[in-house]
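agent> step 3/5: call structure_predict on target 'Aspartate 1-decarboxylase' (Stutzerimonas tarimensis).
agent> reason: downstream docking stage needs a structural representation; sequence fetched in step 2, passing through unchanged.
tool.input:
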Amino acid sequence: MHAIMLKAKLHRAQVTHAVLDYEGSCAIDGDWLDLAGIREYEQIQIYNVDNGERFTTYAIRGEEGSRIISVNGAAAHKAGVGHRLIICAYAHYSEAELASFKPHVLYMGEDGGLSHTSNAIPVQVA
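tool.output (status=ok):
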């Protein structure tokens, strides 16, 4: 049996660029891709915290250390500069892999940089 699980998440990443006249995709700082374990051209889901838009695209590598989050092509209609996004990648895992499974979560700070990382999402309290 297999399960589709959250592989990686950039929580509240700030959009730095929205480029309508581009082939498409979402450019993400290469350092952040590496930390999250997201591969270039991997499918990602994007959830816009500011306007509620949800869309699918793929990741492309941005310049390392640039803090770039560039939403490109048609997706630029769904997220603008300054918007906060949740960017997620999902993967299939076998039952054996699930025994030690932990997602890679990057929490972004108010300044647009990386605040901290985790391998778990806090339990939601009532």
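agent> step 4/5: record observation. The chain has a mean pLDDT of 95.
agent> proceeding.
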